[in-house]
Amino acid sequence: MKDFTRESLLHCPVHGYIPFTSIVPPGEVSERTLLDNPWLQRLRQIHQLQTAWWVYPSAEHTRFQHVVGAMHMASRTVDALYPSLHEVCHGDVPSRGYVECLARMAALLHDVGHGPFGHFFDAHFLKPHYGLNHEVLGAHIIEHELGELLRGVRECPNTRMADGESLDPAQVATLIMRPKTHDADQHPRWLILLRSLFCGLYTVDNMDFVLRDAYMSGYSSRAYDLDRLLRYSFFSDRGLTIHQKGMNALLKFVQTKSELFRAVYFHRTVRAIDKTLEGLFRDSRELLFPGNPLEHLEDYRGFTEWSLLIDVSRWSKFDDPATRSLGQRWDRLLERQVDWVCVEDRNQTVREGESEQTSVFADENVLEQVLRGKLPGEMRDLPMQIDLPRHIYRPDALAATAGQNFQYSPATGKVYPLTDDQLFKQLPLAHRACRIYLRKDHTSEQASAIGAALDAIVGSRGEDDLTNM
Q1: Distance (Å) of CA 358 to CA 73, 158, 192, 350, 394
Q2: Which Pfam families match (predicted)?
Q3: What's the pLDDT band for 418 if we cut at 50, 70, 90?
Q4: Entry pTM
């Protein structure tokens, strides 16, 4: 009989019960130990949806809930795909227990490097000032802060590693890092194939967050057919492959993810909050964190949205005028007083063969310069913010993450690149929105002038149909 005392369950509104190891033999490390580690627990204090929780009141879920869900997705995916992985690698692959433990730990730790406000922190703090992102930080934390614990993990709820196997933290770090061109020769083939479950078109990460974000935001309680998507996925000699019977489920997944970007992640008010936050981060940077997180890991471990928002809420009481002024601006944000409002919203779809770089939407600074040149003279110094959020439907053919997904045709018995599928080819490469924001006290004349100037640059919206049909 299975020893139920060795595992624990948590209940998730998306996946139901999620098991994890709790009691293990002496000298080994349980998954509970990793879950309870401060590096994981800090993710309870970082929202999954960055700033969208200020717009969608029920979307208060955190990175912690997501990574636990991703860990569960890793088990489901390995359960479906390990037999084919073993087959295409001709047996040159670790045990099922090792692969599942590796995938679960990589899924659990893939967001461990995130700072306050997630990807926003990457874009406006880590990258511009230190050339970092949360994946680089996460890989360092995995190898240098959690490495010893990871080496002690020997089992997960479904399986156990073979005798003599020991989890390699470097392989965990490899799975969470976005691949670089020509790095495949540095890793065994089975690991390269497994990495497509972390950085391809559908992954243990996005299969969870699409379901979770759709549910928690109220967008949809059943965003796509996860069971069908996994049932018809397998590894072929080419890579991660989906049977033709699963194509509709995959297309639904891709379309739902793109809808979440348009309706939730890129909501105009969410982006207005981001624009307000940009100015606050720019002016507060030296007060927020002491320096490069790699050199201040202990401080970074305690640096979360909770700690940041508590700190800035005190600044308005400071004696120093500059800090007090910054604190008053942060207070406005905490009271959800947003500085900017969207007055124009246009969209561009980039399809195969089209160049994104030649579009007027390719660069915020260029567009702002051209737009100001089209405004009446007295409005050319009008305070404004330009936002060009971009969502990638599918990787460009030249990207390092491209070429990882394939389709099996039962009619021919052959495996083809997914990009050869006629329905898949209908999907655009990317979608970009163009939003122009003005101060809340703008006039209707100023908004109209912005619209006319944008029309002069990209063309008008066109004529409406003449009949209901």
Answers
A1: 39, 51, 34, 11, 20
A2: HD (PF01966)
A3: confident
A4: 0.93
